[in-house]
Hints:
The chain is of the alpha/beta class. It is built from 11 helices and 6 strands. It has a 6-stranded parallel sheet with strand order 3-2-1-4-5-6, with helices on both faces. Strand 2, helix 7 and strand 3 form a beta-alpha-beta unit. The protein is globular. The protein starts with a helix and ends in a 6-residue tail after the last helix.
Amino acid sequence: MTGINSVQHNDTFAFIFDMDGVLVDNMHMHARSWVELFQDYGLEDLDPDRYLRETAGMKGLDVLRHFLDKDITPEKAEQLTELKDFLYRFMYRDEIRPIEGLEVFLDKAESMKIKLGVGTGAGARNIEYTLGIPGLKNRFNAVVGSHQVRYGKPHPDIFLRVAELLETEPSRCIVFEDALPGLEAAYAAGMKSVALTTTNPAEIMRDRPGVMAVIDDFTALSPEKILEKSCIAQPSAS
């Protein structure tokens, strides 16, 4: 028998989640903190929507080179990114919580022995901060951040490294993403994806290569449905 009954107990599937905008609905706070930082450096024409549209999900170095100084050194970029991240954590501390429906979705995936990982453009402190909240702590078998790979999204390095740590073939990994660079990275890694509308509208996400579904949150989603779609559609990065 094929279909969901045959894959339900297969432990070689993995779900890989971006963190910001996927596990928690916080991208608006990241955007606001970048805008506040850039205003201090004389960049007046940047608003949160432009940040989200052009660079959401990228490493801090790439964001700074895109908006502020294409020749900024990694050392200076790290200093400014830490400053921005401190501002973000200060603004968001009392609001952070898992996105709606996520905990039930993770519970079901765990019961089906699906491996769970995180691949994020965030740095070490923000990862510790976010994945330490109730509902997310100790949920994931592998976590990879921007500081652990040479190239961030839209390059595939982060997702490929998570797959390696989970000991799962990329073709059997499904990525959950909210940002366009992240969807590009998943496709480049040879992985299918589910897009969340926390950062971009559904009409922008729907036609991206490799996207199987577009969702607002996890309330109406089940691992079974995702695995069914995965077995039917096998998009390739080639």
